Amino acid sequence: MSTVVSQAPTGASEAGIAPHAESNALIKPGYDPRLTNEDLAPLKKQTWGQYNIFAFWMSDVHSVGGYITAGSLFALGLSSWQVLVSLLVGIVIVQFFCNLVAKPSQVTGVPYPVVCRAPFGVLGANIPAIIRGLIAVAWYGVQTYLASAAFMVLALHMFPNLAPYAEVSQHGFVGLSTLGWVAFMVMWVLQAFVFWHGMEAIRKFIDWAGPAVYVVMAVLCGWLVWKAGWSKIDLNLGGIKFQGWDALPVMLSAIALVVSYFSGPMLNFGDFSRYGKSFDAVKKGNFWGLPVNFVFFSLLTVITTAATLPVFGELITDPVHTVGKIDSTTAVVLGALTFMIATIGINIVANFVSPAFDFSNVAPQHISWRTGGMIAAVGSVFLTPWNLYNSPEVIHYTLDVLGSFIGPLFGILIADYYFVRKQRIDVDALYTMSPKGEYWYSGGYNPKAIQALVPSAVVPILCVMVPTLRGAANYAWFIGMGLGLVLYVLLNRNNKT
């Protein structure tokens, strides 16, 4: 049984924050303004049903990155049934952990960085918030760049005379062509436009974007199968290299890859589950949006990818390039727009909403949810993500090191809520700086959470950086999560809650 305690925080600031009449924020007079704004406060009403959560996962899965990731698993040298088993096991693990991390935010109505105030302290929560926010900024830039590639395909198809402006050597600035800059900024503005209209606009966008992508993907797949003929399609993209027990290590790596791919959105899933009408609605949405949706999307992806070989004479794993190969203006326009919409969807839900809450949590009085999101958006431009993406080694080490913290942060959050506090959370205490508050520690930081975080993050980082440990790098999330959970529980074994 989960317990939500709601009582006036002792000794908190009496200044209070008066929300607008139409606000969905439940702000009590005792909430400290240094920890509170309308975006971080508990919700008055939670209105998302299972379809909204299902649509959220559709938007998260249906992207160029998701397409390439799913296709890459079929090129590992496993048979089709082994890949499907790996996909299913991996996504069921993701579903299980998403249900775990969803509950504290759903029952309290607060976002991920606020829930983190329980294990890390009311100020210490900025550590997990900033780490998750930085990861989101980097991926936001990369995904925007990938979406702009679809825009460029469309622009060059419609206006071939723009080709010189697509060449960095002829017309370029800091590593990106003039047309590339235009495409990137168009996608940047479109995403900012949707985000700026708030969570309700985002909900409406993802409610139709995910299904729309499915329709076009199905049409593209059907056309390619019709052109190729089913008998010429080989679903074992890389050829079968591993059979019997020899396939087990590869299957385990594939399972770990699936979990790692979703580790970012999984960590801050509370930013969305907080809107759920009930925990049951969230669980049902997770079921339809993860195992059912992901496996079906993966099958659609691999059939489409496999069909490119007989149709175009080469195996194309990037759907944008596949669309660009089709000799039809209607198909190119529809396909390019679809993958632009798909990437906007995942970017907003995975990489815009998260830093919006995370950066707002750092200084609630000065940084609103919208401001936090725009900080992330502007920061993504200065990262020049095209240079990151074109330097795999740089992005690999940067994101892998940051990603090594995701597992430990997840483990600590789950350990605190389920094992240490037994699903009991005092909502009002999350918003007080009073020394008598349950989540106040000396200096505002819980030393036990820091003591658990540091070693549980160092080990995965070593797996990434040390060549002799690279074999364990695929399991960095599991290693970090397990260490973070166990260490935090051990450090709090004498606590009485």
Structure description:
It contains 20 helices and four strands. With 497 residues, it is an all-alpha fold. It has one domain: Hydantoin permease. The protein is globular, with a radius of gyration of 23 Å. The two termini are 15 Å apart.
Q: Which class do the helix and strand fractions yield? A: mainly alpha
- Biggest pleated-sheet summary: 2 strands, parallel
Under CATH, the topology can be stated as Hydantoin permease
The structural domain count equals 1
Which key phrases capture this entry?
497 residues, mainly alpha, Hydantoin permease
Furnish the topology, listing elements before pairings.
Blueprint (H helix, E strand, L loop, with lengths): L2 E3 L44 H12 L2 H10 L6 H29 L3 H4 L1 H4 L5 H33 L13 E2 L2 E2 H19 L2 H30 L19 H14 L1 H5 L2 H4 L5 H34 L6 H7 L3 H34 L6 H14 L2 H5 L2 H12 L2 H15 L3 E3 L20 H19 L10 H16 L6
Parallel strand pairs: 1-4
Antiparallel strand pairs: 2-3
In short, what is this structure?
The chain has 20 helices and 4 strands.
